[in-house]
Amino acid sequence: MKLSVIIPVYNEAVTLNDIRELLFDTLSSMKHAWEIIFVDDGSQDGSYQILKNFAEEHPKQITTIGLRRNFGQTAAIAAGIDHADGEIIILMDADLQNDPADIPLLLGKINEGYDVVSGWRSDRQDKFLTRILPSRIANRIISWVTGVYLHDYGCTLKAYRREVITGFRLYGEMHRFIPAYAAHIGAKITEVKIRHHSRKYGKTKYGLERMGKVILDLITVKFLISYSLKPLYLFGGIGAFFSFSGILILFYLMSRRMVIGISPFSSPLFPTSIMLVILGFQSILMGLIAELLARTYHEAQGKPTYTIREIVKDN
Predict the structure, then answer these.
(1) Domain 2-227 falls in which CATH fold?
(2) Strand 33-40 relative to strand 62-66: parallel, antiparallel, unpaired?
(3) From CA 196, how far away is CA 180, in angstroms rounded?
(4) Residue 169's pLDDT is what?
(5) Using 50, 70 and 90 to split pLDDT, how confident is the model at 217?
(6) Domain edges within the chain
(7) Which of the ends of the chain has fewer CB neighbours closer than 10 A, N or C?
(8) Is 144 exposed, middle or buried (0-12, 13-18, 19+ CB in 10 A)?
(9) Burial classification of residue 135, based on how many CB atoms lie within 10 Å of its CB (0-12 exposed, 13-18 middle, 19 or more buried)
């Protein structure tokens, strides 16, 4: 079983030698074949040259990928996954806050039969108001929306079986939602407590402004997980609600006209009800169009609507 450790890098030149040595110490003591894939995400501090030197010094253990510009952490992770050979994919940061010595903990759970093992920074060494508190709120929201309950979606240190991580593309800030995607195809997920070190060099690349992007990506993830195969359930449900509300208002206006003689056309509720009925009808039509697009997408690419864990048969 080969391990592929993928590390996205952006302006982390001062940590790279340390992270390489720590990784070599941990991985060399294990019985698995392994590789390290560094993905430089358009660094401007000389990180890429350092990583190129690593690949030249250790051609069998290290692969360096240099992106043309800063595409973001999700794109860097996707590039690493595309070029990885391992059956087990391990993601981690390059800032030395994740500890490579925790990799055996993740693999221990993989060996127990889990498909995804998420690191949980239970004793997180970050500022509470700007990092820990927003993260806890985001974790609660993501767990509630996706139905996959993890304490620490934002922790990059995670281990995946290859088959549950290569069936979809990553966009935006969606690397944090990989466990939710994996759960959607039936992956077994767990988490383990890991060490978290305070940042020794530089400063974090993320701030509170990322919360808005995470929320928008979460909406996308929820739609893809819950409604990508049956979009009519979403659009049709909204359309039925709007149409039913409009019809109820019309019924109220007509009843009022029959009882006390007030014309329905004199009330602002009348155009509102008509608008709701029209919006409901349009939403249902959008659902039907989305349904056709979803079926065309799966049939044109030969994508099945199911996933198989394994096939056991007597030959």
Answers:
(1) Spore Coat Polysaccharide Biosynthesis Protein SpsA; Chain A (3.90.550)
(2) parallel
(3) 23
(4) 73
(5) confident
(6) 2-227, 231-300
(7) C
(8) exposed
(9) buried
